[in-house]
Amino acid sequence: MSNFFGIIPSPPPIAAQSRVFDLKARLDWGEPALTIIDVSDRSFFNISHIMGAIPIPMNELVNRALSSLELHRDIYVYGETDDETAAAATKLRAAGFENVSELRGGVAAWKAVGYPVERNLSIDI
């Protein structure tokens, strides 16, 4: 029996750390079954974030993730710095999430290669 499941290859498994190219390839693959979490400050998120990213402040990260995501969900997380990204990933892994990847360089790296970003023009008061 063949292990051939179709002519469209599946994306590679999620790695502990990813480059923006890895995430973009995954998104371009279609039906990516992943979640992108931005843990940066809300004002930073409003200025610019990766298309499709959801904002979750670091202090709410574990509770909100546990209430809305399955533990085996592929999660790409990023913050304002790689240190903040690593801290967020550590929290998610400690909470039992199995497939967490730190997006190295975050939104700055994403923008640097010309990938699309979103902006929230409304101001939180």
UniProtKB/TrEMBL annotation:
Recorded source organism is: Funiculus sociatus GB2-A5
Q: Which SMART domains match?
A: RHOD
- SUPFAM superfamilies this protein is in? Rhodanese/Cell cycle control phosphatase
Q: Which Gene3D superfamilies match?
A: Rhodanese-like domain (3.40.250.10)
Classification via InterPro entries: GlpE_sulfurtransferase (IPR050229), Rhodanese-like_dom (IPR001763), Rhodanese-like_dom_sf (IPR036873)
Q: What is this protein called?
A: Rhodanese-like domain-containing protein
Q: Which domain of life is it from?
A: Bacteria
Q: Which Pfam families does the record associate with it?
A: Rhodanese
Where does the Rhodanese domain start and stop, copy by copy? 30-119
